[in-house]
Amino acid sequence: MDKGVNQAVEAVADLGRDIGEYIRQQRNTAQISLRQLAKLAGVSNPYLSQIERGLRKPSAEILQQIAKGLRISAEALYVQAGILQERAGGAVVDAVLADHDLTERQKQVLLDVYETFRRENAMTRSAQGEHPAETEDTEE
């Protein structure tokens, strides 16, 4: 194989390890055992273990089942797996979308307000000559 093909194969392998590590971190944070998550997601224990170790790259459908078992948004897993581009807002958007106590309409309203605040703050920073990537944490 030529160098470009080798790099592409390694990049795909890295995605598998990245998504597996991300799933393991989310599982540990949720304090769910591998066996419990496998049952909740409707996949076999060995298959989930292989995903976490980066030996298997799960399909979007399997990622959706795992997300449901972890009670996180499938979108978060899709981004980690390289299926989707990360959306502005990151963790806040994920948290709103994952909240089972909110209706879809309430979630959309919250996300619209959040995005409005983000745009206003970006325009304010831009007008002050700051870089958009800077956060309020770095301001004095």
Automatic annotation (TrEMBL):
Superkingdom classification of source: Bacteria
Entry-linked InterPro entries:
Cro/C1-type_HTH, Lambda_DNA-bd_dom_sf, TransReg_Diox_bact_type
A single Gene Ontology CC term: cytosol
| PROSITE patterns (alphabetical) | HTH_CROC1
Location of region: Disordered = 121-140
Q: Name one GO molecular function term.
A: DNA binding
Q: Where is the HTH cro/C1-type domain?
A: 23-77
Q: Which UniProt keywords apply?
A: DNA-binding
| Protein name as catalogued | HTH cro/C1-type domain-containing protein
Species source reads Kutzneria albida DSM 43870
Its lineage opens with: Bacteria, Bacillati, Actinomycetota, Actinomycetes, Pseudonocardiales
